[in-house]
């Protein structure tokens, strides 16, 4: 009830609390080891400060309301990255509308794996046949910093063993190559034919697919330089009114 608005829907602001938790779990599970390795390398290179992933911005598109007492799930994954930013996409979905059969945490702990995730169709598919009910979609971007030094996202990702191969981003296969990769069962022995470069190409293909969304979103950054109209200046801006918040610290001009 404390998260409900006057329409008895989940407050828009509370989505960001869920985003914080989901993104933190994702990055800590995927990148903690790699960040530790890179931090030691940078310290040896003379870079000072603590290495951290710092949030740059968040955008959320609301598609359908979440009513009070309605159960939902938060699914986050790495969307893409460039030379500076790591982009994470998060979907708020109806509970149970996305199926999973395997957990990476089960692999790391040595527990039983079903071996049916990653299929393209049929019973072995790790996702529900029907499209999930999506309430909202968010995109967040992070920058890795050690002190004032910016670390390219690829470096901690590669140090975490997530990219496959030893080449740099985009160098796994040439542009003219179209490798046929069987990824039906990547968690079991049936994926033994996938060597490290092939895995790296799959990751790179996904990165490029997600990059188009990140590029479109980055176009909004130019709005920071255009807070006023063509005939307005910071010294004289017409406004409808001046409105204080309850604490008196926030001021809203319309």
Automatic annotation (TrEMBL):
Superkingdom of the source? Eukaryota
What the record says about family reads:
Belongs to the lcsJ thioesterase family.
From the Swiss-Prot or TrEMBL record, give the protein name.
Thioesterase domain-containing protein
Question: What organism is recorded for this protein?
Answer: Penicillium arizonense
